[in-house]
Design goal:
It is built from 1 helix and no strands. With 138 residues, the protein is mainly alpha-helical.
Length: 138
């Protein structure tokens, strides 16, 4: 019995020491929980920043796709306009060539008419001289 009493005394003596250890362990556990909560908050903040950046990247990709589509539309318009300009240029060139040919033809006709007019003038002169010479004979 004596050894039992000593072991009870020893156990009773250890209660304050064990309670102090329990409080120390409880404090460490509380600090660990606080640290874990702080880490979780920082992780949440970091994830929110990542999500925000992902959103900005997606928005920039969309903006770039819209820009690329507009550039493609403008390039197609420029190509179409160039084709139209080339068509007009070809028609204008053909019209100018046709006009030059008509002008050459008209210049040839003018020379022919001038030569004919000059012969008519010469013939009138001859006729006029011949009349005046026949009148002076009378």
């Amino acid at each position: 019995q004596m050894s039992e009493l000593r072991s009870q005394d020893t156990a009773a003596d250890r209660v304050p020491e064990l309670e102090a250890q329990l409080r120390t362990q409880q404090g460490k556990l509380d600090k660990a929980r606080q640290h874990a909560d702080a880490v979780a908050r920082r992780k949440q903040d970091a994830q929110a920043k990542v999500d925000l950046i992902d959103g900005e990247i997606a928005e920039q990709r969309l903006t770039r796709q819209e820009h690329d589509a507009k550039v493609k539309d403008v390039e197609e318009l420029v190509h179409s306009a160039r084709q139209q300009v080339n068509g007009v240029r070809q028609r204008l060139q053909r019209a100018m060539e046709s006009s030059r040919a008509e002008l050459r033809e008209l210049l040839v006709r003018r020379r022919v008419l001038q030569a004919a007019l000059q012969r008519v003038d010469e013939a009138e002169n001859v006729l006029s001289r011949s009349r005046s010479s026949s009148q002076s004979r009378r």
